[in-house]
Write a structure and sequence with these properties.
heterodimer, A: 112 residues, mainly beta, 7-stranded mixed beta sheet, 52% strand, globular, B: 112 residues, 4-stranded antiparallel beta sheet
Chain lengths: 112, 112
């Protein structure tokens, strides 16, 4: 069964550093998403991406965040200057439309 | 506002007992509804989804859910719980857009 692959599985970074979280969505999917889950809390929507542009973003997704699809397979989330409160599990998801979402196994980001 | 509510934060059941996890949504039309399961430190696994048609949907691992429009509910059920079902369960929905909105989750504990 096709999978969404996320790397790395765990990243530790110092406050103020830039991080890039990587995702390889399912190849024939057209919609891409990032969600995050702070420890013990619910999963929150960050951003959706379609046709090489952001289609929707949440209030969380401020200027510190950016997404990119640099080639035909990767989908990245960049946090420019990490803060302690960015520590969370970040999930990538892709969809072929009409609700066929598949989530990756997540990247646990720890900001120290 | 569009939202999904899971009223039970924690539920404990005995192995072999039946299970029902509650989910209520607030949305002006019929949403697409999902149940996901998350084991500790793991990603989100789709149990089942409802788009339209038969209001009783079958999922993986012996789970089912019933969509009740009159009650704005989409409760998850399992006739006989196994110890391996202990995990966190998230109800989610999407309406006109593509993003998923998650509930706060229900932590299921199974007593042997």
């Amino acid at each position: 069964e096709p999978e969404v692959t996320q790397t790395p599985s765990h990243q530790v970074t110092q406050m103020g550093q830039e991080v890039i979280l990587r995702c390889v969505p399912i190849s024939n999917h057209l919609y891409f998403y990032w969600y995050r889950q702070i420890l013990g809390q619910k999963v929150e929507f960050l951003v959706s991406f379609y046709n090489n542009e952001i289609s929707e973003k949440s209030e969380i997704f401020d200027d510190q965040f950016s997404v990119e699809r640099p080639d035909g397979s990767n989908f990245t989330l960049k946090i420019r200057s990490t803060k302690l409160e960015d520590s969370a599990m970040y999930f990538c998801a892709s969809s072929g439309g009409q609700g066929g979402y598949t989530f990756g196994s997540g990247t646990r980001l720890t900001v120290v | 506002a569009q939202s999904v509510t899971q009223p039970d934060i924690h539920i404990t059941v005995s192995e072999g007992a039946s299970l029902e996890l509650r989910c209520n949504y607030s949305y002006g039309a019929t949403p697409y509804l999902f149940w996901y399961v998350q084991s500790p430190g793991q990603g989100l696994q789709l149990l089942l989804k409802y788009f339209s048609g038969d209001t009783l949907v079958q999922g993986i691992k012996g789970f089912e859910a019933e969509f009740k429009r009159s009650q704005s509910s989409f409760n998850l059920r399992k006739p006989s719980v196994h110890w391996s079902d202990a995990a966190e369960y998230f109800c989610a929905f999407t309406g006109g857009g593509n993003k998923l909105t998650f509930g706060t989750g229900t932590q299921l504990k199974v007593e042997l």
